[in-house]
Write a structure and sequence with these properties.
The chain has 80 residues and is an alpha+beta fold. The protein is built from one helix and five strands; from the N terminus they run E-E-E-H-E-E. The protein has one helix at residues 39-54; strands at residues 4-12, 24-26, 32-34, 58-65, 68-76. A hairpin with a 5-residue loop joins strand 2 and strand 3 (32-34).
Length: 80
């Protein structure tokens, strides 16, 4: 049976190059959509995802809140 390790990370969207318009919109129920993502923003997100992927982490999910992206990752543990 597979055994998993989990970790969480928080990424400030203000650290990523962006245009002044908002690229993530959330409703009052907490449902969020990404839209109008500029190519340079996409590259920053891809770099963050690829950096963790190269370390063996698989993205489970991300949530946007208060200018930050909260991400949950998992990695299968090595069999002993």
């Amino acid at each position: 049976m597979a055994r998993w390790r989990y970790k969480t990370t928080i990424h400030s969207l203000s650290d990523m190059p962006s245009e002044p318009e908002r690229v993530i919109e959330c409703d009052n129920k907490g449902h969020c959509l990404v839209h109008d993502l500029q190519e340079k923003n996409m590259g920053s997100l891809e770099n963050m995802l690829n950096t963790e992927g190269e370390k063996g982490w698989e993205l489970v999910q991300c949530h946007y809140h208060a200018e930050e992206l909260f991400c949950l990752w998992k990695k299968q543990e090595e069999e002993a």
